[in-house]
Amino acid sequence: MFEQLIACYARGESWLARWLGPTVLLLMRIWVAIAFWRAGLVKIEDPAGTQFLFNTVYQVPLLSPDLAAVLGTWVELIMPWLIGFGVAGRLTSLFLFVYNGIAVISYPALWPHGFWTGFFNVTDFADHKVWGLMLLAIAAWGPGRWSVDAIVGYVWRFRLGGMKSKSVIANPCERRQSASGATIRRD
Q1: Cα 110 from chain centroid?
Q2: Residue 43 belongs to what domain range?
Q3: Model confidence over 15-50: pLDDT tens digits?
Q4: Is residue 163 part of a domain?
Q5: Are 73 and 43 in contact (CB under 8 A)?
Q6: Is there a domain that residue 157 lies in?
Q7: Which of 86, 90, 96, 106 yields a CA-CA distance of 20 to 30 A from 138?
Q8: pTM for this model (two decimals)
Q9: What share of the chain is helix, strand, coil (3-state, %, to 5)?
C-alpha cells in the first residue's frame, strides 16, 4: 500500500514537472512581455511626452536623458518579443531584470517612503517587484519547454549532435546494466 502511494506521488510529481512547470514559465514570460510591450507602446505613441519625462522626471544614471528615452523605448519594444518567445531566455530575462531595476531607481515617485522602506513595503512599486521575481524565475529555470530555446536545444541535441539521451546530465539514481548484464545503481 505504501509503495502504491509513493508510486502515485512520483507519477503526479513527474506530471507536474513535465507540464505545470513549463506552463507556469510560459505564463510568466507572456505576462512580463505584455507589461514591457505596453510600456514601449506608450513611449513610442508619444515621443515628445517620453522625451519630456526623461528630461524632467526620470533620473536614469550614466545616460543622457535623450539617449535613455530612445534606448528605453526600443528595449521595451524588442525585448518583450524575445522573452515572450523564449529566445535566449536566461540572458533576456537577466537583461530585463537589470532594466527593471534601473527603471525603479530612475523614478523616485515609485518609492514615496524611501527606496529601502519601499523595497520591503508591499505596495511600493509592487508591479516591478512581481516582474522582477518572474524574470529571476525565468533566469533560474530557463524559459521552459515551450520556447525557441527548447526547440533549438532539441534540434541541436538530436539532429545535429546525434545524441540519443534526452539529458546531457545523467540521473545519478538511474539503474543501468553493467557489461556483464548485472543491474547496477549509481548512487
Answers
A1: 23
A2: 2-146
A3: 888 888 899 999 999 999 999 999 999 999 999 999
A4: no
A5: yes
A6: no
A7: 106
A8: 0.76
A9: 70, 5, 25
